[in-house]
Amino acid sequence: MKRNYLIILLLFCLKLLAGAQFIKGELYLEINLTASPQLTITPKGKNANITITEMDGLISRNFDSAITINIMNPETLVHYAILDFTEIVYAAHDDEQAVVRDFFAWANSRLKIKKELQHFLPESFTTEEEAKQYASKQGIPIDKIKEVQLLNSTVQIQDATGNLCYMETPLKIHSEGEIYFNRNSYDYSGDFILKTIKKQIILNQLLPLETYLAGVVQNEIGDNAPAEALKAQIVAARTHALTLLLNNKHKTDGYDLCNSTHCQVYKGKYLLNEQILQAVYECASEVLFYNGNLAETTYHSCCGGKTEAADIIWKGKPIDYLKGVTCLNAVNSFDLSKEKDARAWIDKPLAEEEMSSWERGALSWHKSISLNQLAKNAGLSSISRIEILQRGSSGRITKVKLIGNETISLNSEYQIRQVFGNLLSSFFYIEGSYQIANGTVIIIPKPNIKIKGRGAGHGVGMCQVGALRMARKGTKYEEILQHYYPGTTINKDWIDD
After folding, report:
1. Cα separation of 301 and 459, whole Å?
2. Residue 479 confidence (pLDDT)
3. Which of 168, 262, 308, 471 meets the CB 3.0–4.6 Å disulfide criterion with 228?
4. Pairing relation of β-strands 26-36 and 489-491?
5. 8 Å CB contact between 120 and 107
């Protein structure tokens, strides 16, 4: 008998998820691709076709060219249209006798109508008087004039020739061919959901969890990674995705997960790499558990030598399997929490011949920032002194004080990275002389600050560069996961009992 881990099913029963659903026993997610006041969809190739359907499935439009979608304000749209003809539409429902369904009609604007589908002449009017004048000239009875009731969810769709139509969101969008959204350089295909939330057009891709993972892995660890590194990344990414769902990270935003580093990087084109798809298949449904619960399998690009404890980075409770581990054995002779050792380790050559360019760039990097820009980033008019108050065991700086016209404290590694110029990590030192007083590193900065660092990302959980290194040496993905998340176990029985 499978374990009673009804995690996802329980969430559905409680209606906690924004869009996730089971389709034929497979978990589908809504992954956000863009959110903007206006959306442009551009087919790639002359034969691409876009089908847009209202969620009830009764109103559908096909487009073979680029289209632009705008949110409409009902108060600014036309209010009158002239009825061409009316038809009653019947539809079977379960085993019941056919019944009249409720519909919305098409015109130059939306007409809220029930139990019939109404077709209008192309002309529309902002006032009833204008409609009457037109009807009189055309010999149309005035009872054919209908007031248009627009909805707040109405969007206007314009094709390349200028033709307009109006549809009510949410909408289903499908394209067999590749399409682009706004100025995004990445192309997508398949099924999409369009919503309007807070005067924004929210465009989500609806796809199975396993397909989403293939797209994530390609962009998170690279499509040329060894198979065992791919599988380690897949299991970590799958577990991470489910924990994000459990935490309802984007519920109020209208989607399940975003496509950036805020959740996990997803850029489509997932079907182009058979190696990744094979890796997804070989470890299908596998997630990491710790003491009967889903583990928090966060990960990052490069630790720089040691991973960091989660509570040091995010100031929460210690997590047994996220306490930080050694990634490069040579680092064990250094105490990276000490300034002298941190500098010595950063200066030590580490690159290996098998490393890719992005691995090398993550492992060792340089950055410059002017003192004026640093002050501006921190909200100060001047800075005369920098104090480094704390480094974690991975060498990442977690507390900094900037002293100038005022004193500013930076108390998170992310904040430190941003203020110092969007650094790859907070594992760095400022070149030049320094003093240490009562454990505080004191730096009198020069007008141009030169920074030398190591690592990329927050440093918690699995190090992707480390996973690649272990896989190249023949380490199995189970061992890689156990190294970075010690004490966790792989589990497949998380959907039902």
Report:
1. 8
2. 98
3. 471
4. unpaired
5. yes
Q: Which two tokens stand for residue 376?
A: 């501006």
Contact 275, 282 (CB under 8 A): no
* Domain map (residue ranges) of the chain: 78-149, 210-298+461-491, 300-459
What percentage of the chain exceeds 90 in pLDDT?
A: 56
Q: Which of 239, 228, 237 is nearest to 282 (CA)?
A: 228
Does pLDDT of 11 surpass 50?
no
Closest residue by Cα to residue 60 from 50, 70, 69? 50
Strand partners, 272: none
pLDDT of residue 312: 95
Average pLDDT of the residues in 126-139: 89
Q: End-to-end alpha-carbon separation of the chain, Å?
A: 7
Residue range 73-122, pLDDT digits in tens: 766 666 787 877 766 554 433 333 322 333 333 333 333 333 455 667 76
* Helix, strand, coil percentages for the chain (3-state, nearest 5): 25, 35, 40
Q: How buried is residue 198: exposed, middle or buried, by Cβ count under 10 Å (0-12/13-18/19+)?
A: exposed
CA 10-12-16 angle, to 5 degrees, is 100
Give strand ranges (E) for 381-433: 383-391, 397-404, 407-410, 428-430
